[in-house]
Amino acid sequence: MMKLIDNASGLADYTAATFLRNPFERQIVLSSIDVPTRLNRVAAFLAAEIDSNS
């Protein structure tokens, strides 16, 4: 599946859908129009999830 991703927007969407457990966080990411903002939100949510599991 990762081979089919050819842009940053698709990477953000795939990562959010696959790795973010919280549906509210996924919705925030997927509804962000600006790609850099979307990527930053994915990174922030993933970092928070990693921190909470440490």
In short:
The chain has 54 residues and is mainly α.
Q: Report the sheet-strand fraction.
A: under 5%
Catalogue the unreliable spans. Answer: none
Termini Cα gap: 29 Å
Largest sheet: none
- SS-based structural class? mainly alpha
Tell me, rounded to a whole number, the average pLDDT.
91
Return the string of H and E elements: HHH
User: What value does the Rg take, in angstroms?
Assistant: 11 Å
Number of strands: 0
Q: Helical region count? A: 3
Label the overall shape. Answer: globular
Helical residue percent band: over 70%
Task: Describe the structure in your own words.
The structure is a single chain. This protein has 54 residues and is mostly helical. It has a domain at 23-54. Helices cover 70% and strands 0% of the residues. The protein is built from three helices and no strands. The termini are far apart. The model has no long low-confidence stretch (mean pLDDT 91).
Topology:
Blueprint: H1 8-19, H2 23-30, H3 35-52
Helix pairs in contact: 1-2, 1-3, 2-3
Question: Keywords, please?
Answer:
about 55 residues, globular, single chain, mainly alpha
